[in-house]
């Protein structure tokens, strides 16, 4: 009766030694596992960092968009209030004899045959 127990234990012992990895391979595998864990933590940290950066930049963008909209409204009001009289009040002096410069042939905006269209 003792013999089967010894055979069973020796079989388990032989199975254990046959499945055991060499120490160098075990160290390499543990190193790779630690490297994978460290890179996972790094990339997870970068993902969170970029997500918060994106959220803050979207918030800043919306604030700047409202500032730009206010400036555009102010500009439109100023442009609509600008008249020739107001320009003269601000110092506009009209030229007595305006000079227009052209180069080459006279061009028109027509595509009709026989014209020099742009």
Question: Could you explain the architecture of this structure?
Answer:
It is a single chain. By secondary structure, the chain is an all-alpha fold. 70% of the residues lie in helices and 0% in strands. It is elongated. It starts with a helix and ends in a 29-residue tail after the last helix. Residues 1-5 have low confidence and may be disordered.
List the helices and strands and how they pair.
Elements (H helix, E strand, L loop, with lengths): L1 H18 L3 H59 L2 H6 L29
Structural descriptors:
single chain; 118 residues; mainly alpha
Helical region count? 3
Strand content: under 5%
Q: Report the strand count.
A: 0
For the biggest sheet, the summary is:
none
Mean residue pLDDT: 81
Low-confidence stretches: 1-5
Termini distance? 110 Å
Helical percentage: over 70%
Which geometry do the CA atoms define?
elongated
Radius of gyration: 42 Å
The succession of helices and strands, N to C, reads: HHH
| Structural class by sheet pairing and helices | mainly alpha
Tell me briefly what this model is.
By secondary structure, the protein is mainly α.
